[in-house]
Amino acid sequence: MTVAAPYPIGTPGQPWGEAEKAQWRSRQRRQRSYEADVLGAVERLRARFDVVEYGRLDYPPDHYPLYAVRSRDWRAALPAVLVTGGVHGYETSGVHGALQFLEHEAADYAGRANLLVAPCVSPWAYERIHRWNPHAVDPNRSFRDPSPAQESAALMRLVAPLRERFLVHIDLHETTDSDESEFRPALAARDGKPFEPDGIPDGFYLVGDSEDPQPEFQQAIIAAVEQVTHIAPADADGKIIGTPVAAPGVIHYPVRKLGLCAGLTGARYRTTTEVYPDSPHATPAQCNAAQVAAVRAAIDYALAHR
């Protein structure tokens, strides 16, 4: 039997206090640039889209403006689509897939749908390739009122006036090897719980809403993505990350109960993508393309089944 080594911060069995969170924060290092990677790409989109600054994160000495990109020809009569990326900043293809969709695919929906895209919800975590914000809070468990995460609260304010007008919301994520090596052990340590290894699925999958699963919608996305990259199989117990598989490549969570971004709107069609960038059978380009294929398939299905 293999016993996982204790996480290097905190005392096993005791939740973190402010001292442990500060120690964890001191270990985080900037590894890439939000300004160069995201803001630069958003600037290049200004000629074709409206760009909205919907908030600002002040984490001294760092300050991050939050931007969303929206259709310039926004019309109240058209269905609205929300695309979110980088809620977990370390999940790279969510950010770059959203930007790639805007750059190369979004024009196809002009006059057919109103698009609102928030490509990088968590820029501090994007730069540090981490899951949490600097307060050791997971933004993707924080879409509730009041929100404990500034990132989530800002997006909630942006979406609030349109919340019930969205037809589609697709939230772009990844499941990585570092989930098992770093983020889940850190979560267990933070909460004073034992870490229980679970394994990482090899391939793309979706997380639908258990309260309204929309199975045909989910399968339309799976069918599109499997033309780009492979779909994660169920494990020997018929599960993906400990959750029973509802259909090939699809599991369900109660997204609103868990405070997940996918529960942010009243959209009829909502889902969370999960790309596996550490697979030996996938490249970064494939991961980005899988996110784009998922977005296109989600919009196309929803427009055809309004």
Automatic annotation (TrEMBL):
<dbReference type="InterPro" id="IPR000834">
    <property type="entry name" value="Peptidase_M14"/>
</dbReference>
<dbReference type="GO" id="GO:0016788">
    <property type="term" value="F:hydrolase activity, acting on ester bonds"/>
</dbReference>
<dbReference type="GO" id="GO:0004181">
    <property type="term" value="F:metallocarboxypeptidase activity"/>
</dbReference>
<dbReference type="GO" id="GO:0006508">
    <property type="term" value="P:proteolysis"/>
</dbReference>
<feature type="domain" description="Peptidase M14">
    <location>
        <begin position="30"/>
        <end position="306"/>
    </location>
</feature>
<comment type="similarity">
    <text>Belongs to the peptidase M14 family.</text>
</comment>
<dbReference type="GO" id="GO:0008270">
    <property type="term" value="F:zinc ion binding"/>
</dbReference>
<dbReference type="Pfam" id="PF24827">
    <property type="entry name" value="AstE_AspA_cat"/>
</dbReference>
<keyword id="KW-0479">Metal-binding</keyword>
<keyword id="KW-0378">Hydrolase</keyword>
<keyword id="KW-0862">Zinc</keyword>
<protein>
    <submittedName>
        <fullName>Succinylglutamate desuccinylase/aspartoacylase family protein</fullName>
    </submittedName>
</protein>
<dbReference type="InterPro" id="IPR055438">
    <property type="entry name" value="AstE_AspA_cat"/>
</dbReference>
